[in-house]
Write a structure and sequence with these properties.
CATH architecture of the largest domain: Beta Barrel
Number of domains: 2
Strand content: over 45%
Number of strands: 13
Strand order of the largest sheet: 5-6-7-8-9-11-12-13
Largest sheet: 8 strands, antiparallel, barrel
Distance between the termini: 82 Å
CATH class of the largest domain: Mainly Beta
Structural class: mainly beta
Shape: elongated
Length: about 170
């Protein structure tokens, strides 16, 4: 009787293992027909892109949607609106996420970082002594750049003052 028990258990174990292996071999590999670029890894049929790339196959450099010249207007602290342009360009080939933004009317040059999949340019807050600056840059519909520049400083009467400037501009469609 003991022999039959062991034989039956062994047979069922073999059938269970063989069925599992057979089932796994019949399940199609979801990544077999997926091409991921620039070091991206496919997981369950989806490419997981690195920080500088985006798109379904990770072939698009995330920064390219920001690059270009934007024509629009700037205004500071309720003063009259003036025509302005902003240029956004890539810093260099080693820093695929880093950009420079030049606002021409205010002669402001900003350095920022793009996060793949994001529509924002991250610019770290800066400051020294009694001065600080907070910036937010965002892109809407791939063509509209908005720059919000808030500065805090100690005024002539030694009171904390604040200046807010904004730029809104559009990049021509290709």
């Amino acid at each position: 009787m003991k022999f039959w028990k062991e034989s039956l258990l062994t047979a069922f174990g073999f059938i269970a293992i063989a069925s599992t292996v057979l089932y796994q071999s019949c399940t199609p590999d979801q990544c077999a027909s997926v091409n991921c670029y620039y070091g991206a890894v496919c997981n369950a049929g989806v490419c997981n892109c690195g920080p500088a790339y985006e798109g379904s196959d990770c072939s698009k450099l995330a920064i390219t949607k920001f690059i270009g010249t934007y024509t629009g207007t700037s205004s500071c602290d309720g003063n009259p609106v003036m025509e302005d342009t902003a240029d956004v360009y890539m810093v260099g080939p080693k820093d695929l996420n880093d950009v420079k933004v030049v606002l021409h009317s205010n002669n402001i040059v900003l350095s920022g970082t793009i996060i793949a999949g994001s529509l924002d340019i991250t610019v770290p807050d800066s400051g020294y002594g009694d001065y600080s600056r907070h910036l937010q840059l965002s892109l809407t519909n791939g063509t509209k750049l908005t720059v919000y520049n808030e500065q805090h400083f100690l005024g002539p009467k030694l009171e904390q003052e604040k200046s807010i400037c904004t730029f809104v501009g559009n990049k021509p469609m290709k």
